[in-house]
């Protein structure tokens, strides 16, 4: 196989968090500033760290805002789900002997609260979260951290994500990128491969 390391983004790739992320951010902005921005104007926040999103919105008290966002997010937790086909894909990759990893903009606490309850954490050997690098997507730093930690050759790594930030991160790191079309809003994103469904990856790598 060309790719020995299959590395995933989380939000919009492994789990569907879009509704929860955008509506809880909308609630946070309303509570802090009184602004009522439509969800369509907040989609830039998908794929970057919460801190970066709040800074783009001009929020000054980041600590308070992040606390509120976490609280509001929990109110939408019942809308979050693992995408159809993901568990079957992970099982298949495991049988093939692929090493699976995660490179995400989630913090350790967000990862613990928002991802771990779905029970798929054990599939992944190497995980890079927001605190693990000084720079974040679209910088190459998170994927470089993965390469260092997993002792991987970039030619054997495929990164799968749903956002322009994921694509740019992979391109900047010299790593091939597959767009998770099932969770992406934009099929115009630059990618080496376009995957309509999770199981399309099996056809690609075997």
Automatic annotation (TrEMBL):
Which InterPro entries does the annotation name?
A: HAD-like_hydrolase_sf (IPR050155), HAD-like_sf (IPR036412), HAD-SF_hydro_IA (IPR006439), HAD_2 (IPR041492), HAD_sf (IPR023214), PGP-like_dom2 (IPR023198)
For molecular function, the Gene Ontology terms on record are: phosphoglycolate phosphatase activity
Hey, what's the signal peptide range on this chain? Answer: none
Q: Name one Pfam family in it.
A: HAD_2
Tell whether Protein transport is among the UniProt keywords: no
Kindly state a single biological-process term from the GO annotations of this entry. Answer: DNA repair
Keyword line: Hydrolase
GO CC entries: cytosol
- Name of the protein in its database record: HAD family hydrolase
Question: What is the native source organism of this protein?
Answer: Schaedlerella arabinosiphila
Q: What is the lineage of its organism?
A: Bacteria, Bacillati, Bacillota, Clostridia, Lachnospirales
């Amino acid at each position: 196989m060309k790719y020995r390391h299959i590395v995933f983004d989380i939000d919009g790739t492994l789990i569907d968090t879009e509704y929860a992320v955008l509506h809880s951010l909308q609630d946070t902005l309303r509570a802090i500033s009184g602004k009522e921005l439509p969800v369509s104007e907040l989609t830039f926040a998908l794929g970057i760290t919460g801190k970066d999103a709040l800074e783009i919105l001009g929020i000054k008290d980041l600590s308070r805002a992040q606390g509120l966002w976490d609280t509001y997010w929990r109110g939408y937790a019942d809308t979050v789900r693992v995408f159809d086909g993901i568990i079957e894909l992970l099982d298949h990759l495991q049988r093939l002997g692929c090493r699976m990893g995660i490179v995400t903009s989630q913090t350790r606490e967000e990862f613990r609260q928002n991802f771990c309850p779905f029970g798929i954490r054990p599939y992944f050997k190497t995980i890079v979260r927001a605190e693990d690098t000084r720079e974040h997507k679209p910088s190459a730093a998170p994927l470089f951290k993965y390469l260092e930690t997993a002792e991987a050759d970039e030619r054997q790594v495929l990164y799968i994500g749903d956002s322009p930030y994921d694509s740019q991160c992979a391109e900047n790191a010299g790593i091939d990128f597959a767009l998770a079309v099932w969770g992406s809003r934009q099929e115009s994103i630059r990618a080496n491969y376009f995957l309509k469904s999770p199981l399309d990856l099996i056809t690609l790598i075997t």
